[in-house]
Amino acid sequence: MPDRLRELSRRNAEAEAGGGPERRAREKSAGKLSARERIDLLLDPGSFEETGKFVASRATDFGMAEARIPGDGFITGHGRIHGRIVFVFAQDFTVFGGSLSEANAAKIVAIMDTALRVGAPVIGLNDSGGARIQEGVVSLAGYTDIFLRNTLASGVIPQISAILGPCAGGAVYSPAITDFTLMTERTSYMFVTGPDVIRTVTHEDVTKEQLGGAATHNQISGVAHFMTADDAQALATIRELLTFIPSNNLDLAPRSPCTDDPARADASLDSIIPEASNQPYDMCDVITKIVDEGYFFEVHQHFARNILVGFARMNGRPVGVVANQPAVLAGVLDIDASVKAARFVRFCDAFNIPLLTFEDVPGFMPGVQQEHGGIIRHGAKLLYAFAEATVPKLTVITRKAYGGAYCVMSSKHLRTDLNLAWPTAEIAVMGPEGAVNIVYKREFDQALRTAEAVWPQGKPFSEAEKQAILADLRAEKVEEFRSRFANPYVAAERGYIDAVIRPSETRRRLNLALDMLATKREKNPPKKHGNIPL
Ligand code: HXC
After folding, report:
1. Secondary structure of 379-415 in the HEC alphabet?
2. Would you please indicate which residues are annotated as catalytic (active-site) residues?
3. Residue 430 pLDDT greater than 90, yes or no
4. Which residues of 128-144 are buried (b: 16+ CB within 10 A; e: fewer)?
5. Cα separations in angstroms, 479 against 190, 324, 466, 485
6. 2-241 with 267-430+486-519: one CATH topology?
């Protein structure tokens, strides 16, 4: 027996050594934690149960038989985060560059299958040179087995990807299918084809960082949802993210004890909207004055900043917040904002998280680039996402709700359960300035003709002169239009708004509604699946 135990210790030590101290030291000097250190930081202390620790490569070509390392460079298993079971895999870059082999792909597939059976999240800690080159097509098969699981698990269990090193080639498509992607600054990058190939094919010169670093994917492409300073911050962010979401699509998100009065009134909300309706304000201030403890956990913070998405709690219940941001591009809906919000709405709906929408939107972004880029089909994604969502839906119109954007932003017509408006709400087909140009065009033309008839100069008016002549009339019509349409009462008369409320009482009204909606059950017509305009 002692011999057997000694052998077990030796084998464990061999597996835990990974690619050896030299390679580990190189990783450390680059600011990266080891795969095992990452798992330890991610999970509750002492909760990790490893599986497949002695699984070894099945490859024999290229000297692989002699180079076997127990575990084959991937650490897999399960543990707990805040006491709840999660499944995790971590790629160890010190073993063949964390590359994916037939054997270690099977380890990931095994934990994903178990996670699906028991209804627990899967977290991937990615740090890999991609498909193991020595194994050829069996490695590609391994990737595809994972992609299939990612897809089947989508909407059933939450899937989270941390990119903590390289993630290139087809390997990027696993994180892309998962629900949330985190990237570390300086040490991570993602791309389908790297700078060398790009230089050859398109003659563009670009660094890895510019092409697919954390800033690029958080700000420009929207591929990543979080950017963190280092591994430790990424792992802490995942732990926090999980406090807002349930373990699977049949559970409710965990409710926390709440010390913030659910009926708390915030008088400063009554004056938060600026007098001039074209003046910006920060919607984050509105959100934080309403949600528990003023805490908003923002997702996709650096991408499409004209819309805000993220999690918060209301009386201890996690909610998904979607909010136009008047401080950026006046809160207009463009392609990126629509796609960002649509994906978030669908996540919340899949995982039973109520949706809280704050609306101040002047409309969809005009422009050739937006139209040619497909704002029609991308904007439709957000419309579709809100329309199909069956979780409790609550909307607060703080100021503008114009045109198609009014319809899209969780309007009453999309089965939203509670639509509130502040007295500052302006709900109309378009803003008064634009509207009067169309509605009163004849009156304006007539006024110009009358002025022309008594104009002694005998030459047409300049544009500036026209504006001056029409200024009073236009101001009068804008005011008339504003008082007739740019208010919440026309919509409230129709029942499209359930109540016009004092802003200070928003928290109380929303919490009462969330209590009432706690047992909401709504189903869409049975179908194989819808056909969201992708
Ligand atoms: C086997 C690999 C490997 C791989 C790296 N290594 N990538 N071994 N298969 N894909 C090994 C190296 O041989 C080296 O081994 C160790 O990992 C560290 O690699 P370095 O190159 O020294 O590290 P670094 O300079 O940091 O460069 C990292 C890297 C580079 C940029 C990731 O290694 C690289 O370009 N690797 C190949 C990437 C690639 O083309 N992968 C295939 C992509 S296609 P030693 O023994 O020296 O420590 C793909 C298809 C997926 O993945 C398709 C899915 C459908």
Report:
1. HHHHHHHHHHCCCCEEEEEEEEEEHHHHHHCCCHHHC
2. 169-170, 404-405
3. no
4. bbbbbebbeebbbebbe
5. 52, 25, 19, 10
6. yes
Domain made up of 2-241: CATH architecture: Alpha-Beta Complex (3.90)
Mark 402-417 as b/e (b = at least 16 C-beta within 10 Å).
bbebbebbbbbebebb
Query: Which residue has a Cα nearest atom 28 of ligand 1?
Result: 129
Higher pLDDT among residues 397 and 456, named by residue: 397
Q: Kindly state the helix (H) or strand (E) to which residue 299 belongs, with its residue range.
A: strand 297-299
Q: 94 C-alpha to center of ligand 1: Å? A: 11
CATH topology of domain 267-430+486-519: 2-enoyl-CoA Hydratase; Chain A, domain 1 (3.90.226)
Question: What was the pLDDT predicted at 453?
Answer: 81
Q: What is the mean pLDDT of residues 440-459?
A: 82
- CA-nearest of 136, 66, 64 to 100 is 136
Per-residue pLDDT tens digits for 298-333: 999 999 999 999 999 999 999 999 999 999 999 999
In this structure, the residue with its CA closest to atom 13 of ligand 1 is 96
So what's the pLDDT on residue 485?
83
The protein residue whose alpha carbon is closest to atom 19 in ligand 1 is 97
Distance from C-alpha of 363 to C-alpha of 334, rounded to nearest angstrom: 9
Q: What is the DSSP letter of 59?
A: -
Rounded to 5°, the CA angle 72-78-81 comes to 135
Distance of alpha carbon 361 from alpha carbon 332, whole angstroms: 6
Distance of CA 313 to the CA centre of its chain: 17
pLDDT at 5: 96
Q: How far apart are CA 94 and CA 87, in angstroms?
A: 22
pTM exceeds 0.90 for this model: yes
Say which amino acid occupies 440: Y
β-strand partners of 321: 310, 356
What distance in angstroms lies between residue 38's CA and the mean position of ligand 1's atoms? 21
Q: What is the best residue among 28, 96, 128, 145 to mutate for testing ligand 1's pocket, by most ligand atoms within 8 Å of CB?
A: 96
The domain segmentation of the chain, as residue ranges, is: 2-241, 267-430+486-519, 432-481
Q: How much is the mean pLDDT over the chain?
A: 95
Strand partners, 436: none
Q: What is the DSSP letter of 62?
A: G
Q: Which residues of 472-511 are buried (b: 16+ CB within 10 A; e: fewer)?
A: ebbeebbeebbeebbbbeebbeeebbbebbebbbbbbbbb
